[in-house]
């Protein structure tokens, strides 16, 4: 049975390129595997599109239902972020860099999770451990993913391992200037022109269970907050709309990658709880939080504490 390698829903560049990377590694080890993603090619985020394009990587095929399939998960291990019916799938491998989620298996599997900034960094080690050369195009994708996930090394999730992986991967991929690559990605990613507010909200969005309360957290990484000045009301309306769908709170991180902080937009049943979580004060519907770059390492842990998880 072909192993479908798939990343989380609302795929980011790491989810997509790690699926390509792990599928390539499994193929090189004689296994039948293919890269998949939880998105149509059209709906893929603009940064990931640009990265696949630049390195000449094939767009992974869409998977929506995992029932009866053999799957490998990359960049997540939460059921909430999996294709439908993941409990009826045979999960044979997980490679990740997040907190351990709630996917369970009936058999022992290869499970490799490391506290590093990107799945690409873990995969780079796995290729080396296996003594297998990373194909040039695949290395380009993994390199781009590390720059994306670590926000060009600025995210608090970034580790020395990520920097070392970038140094190795850029040689394999033939990329001389990673700054140029990062800025090109940022430009593609942060382009909001003509994109509906709801699509922007879901561009990099995850739902979390906070002690029984459903909390959604989206993030837009921007070169400047000015990029969204004209569409703030539209974004707020989109947040209110999805909050009405059974959520306690919806947060949108408008992250200024250059200033290294986040304007956190909040729609909540309990705004005071969110203020407490971030030790801030909402001015209208948002608050600036200096140094906030990472949903995983800053936003979610603070929310979990405030919600008493
Ligand atoms: Mg990811
Ligand atoms: Mg990742
Ligand atoms: Mg990410």
Give a summary of the structure in a few sentences.
The chain is an alpha/beta fold and 309 residues long. It has helices at 13-28, 46-55, 119-130, 136-149, 160-173, 178-189, 197-201, 232-243, 271-278, 295-307, and strands at residues 3-6, 33-37, 61-62, 70-74, 90-96, 110-113, 205-210, 213-222, 249-256, 261-268, 286-290. Strands 3-2-1-4-5-6 form a six-stranded parallel β-sheet.
Q: What can you tell me about this protein's structure?
A:
- The chain has ten helices and eleven strands.
- The model has no long low-confidence stretch (mean pLDDT 96).
- The chain has two domains: 185 residues, inorganic pyrophosphatase (n-terminal core) (Alpha-Beta Complex); 111 residues, Roll (Diaminopimelate Epimerase, Chain A, domain 1).
Task: Give the key terms.
alpha/beta; inorganic pyrophosphatase (n-terminal core); globular; Diaminopimelate Epimerase, Chain A, domain 1; binds magnesium ion; six-stranded parallel sheet; five-stranded mixed sheet; 21% strand
SSE map:
Elements: E1 3-6, H1 13-28, E2 33-37, H2 46-55, E3 61-62, E4 70-74, E5 90-96, E6 110-113, H3 119-130, H4 136-149, H5 160-173, H6 178-189, H7 197-201, E7 205-210, E8 213-222, H8 232-243, E9 249-256, E10 261-268, H9 271-278, E11 286-290, H10 295-307
Parallel strand pairs: 1-2, 1-4, 2-3, 4-5, 5-6, 8-9
Antiparallel strand pairs: 7-8, 9-10, 10-11
Helix pairs in contact: 1-2, 1-3, 1-4, 2-6, 3-4, 3-5, 4-5, 9-10
The structure holds magnesium ion (MG) (3 copies).
